[in-house]
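Field: COMPLEX_INPUT
Field: COMPONENT_COUNT = two
Field: RESIDUE_TOTAL = 251
Field: MODE = joint
Values follow.
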Amino acid sequence: MRLEYFQMLDRIERLDREAASIVVHSKVPRQSPVFEGHFPGHPLMPGVLLLETMAQASGYLLLALDGFARMPFFASAKEANFRAFVRPEADLIVEATRVHAGSGYSVMRAHISSEDRRVSDASMTFRSLPFSTPELEQHVRREGARLGMIAEGQGAS
Amino acid sequence: MSSTFETVAEIISSTSDVALDRIKPESHIMKDLEVDSLAFLDISFEIDQRFSIKLPIEDWMQSVNEGKVKSEDYFVVGSLCRHIDKLVAVAAAA
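Field: COMPLEX_OUTPUT
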């Protein structure tokens, strides 16, 4: 994780196309400017960044299911819960599942666990749109490769 | 059993904070009921779930944007209900 770059995911552990689900590992960094403000003397992963982490796992799942043909944009979050403090250096397991594939949109459920305890969960909706720029598409594909997604048929498939 | 209109009106009202008595078969969902595109995603999701169909929203929007049809053909409540009934019939026959 590099919080200040919104790089919330480290490695895809499992991608199940049939079940439309993904499991991703992330490790909260020991230090980040984010913790200087959130909070002095009591560093905590902000809830909005946990939500962003779930959104990114959901987004890469949708990219994989769609063959990186369209960009999923985070449109809404419902019932987002932050159930426990997440501190620096926490290992996070992020799981996301597509619960409905609509016409041009998808509804997702996701949760984050740490040390076998659920720390956050949410329902989210994504709109899928054509990539607006080549740069965006290249960035997303590069990130997919970094996460192990492009090497399909191997560890991440 | 509720009619398609009653079910759709209840979905619109519960997902968009539109008073149920404002929703008429002739109401345009966006223009009259002021439902925005994000709220319409919630409505589409609920309709898909309740009727076990998939509203082809993208195709509809493309047809409207290309000027092939008027938005009233899909996004007036009564028109939407007729499309839902057709999709339900197709799904049942499949």
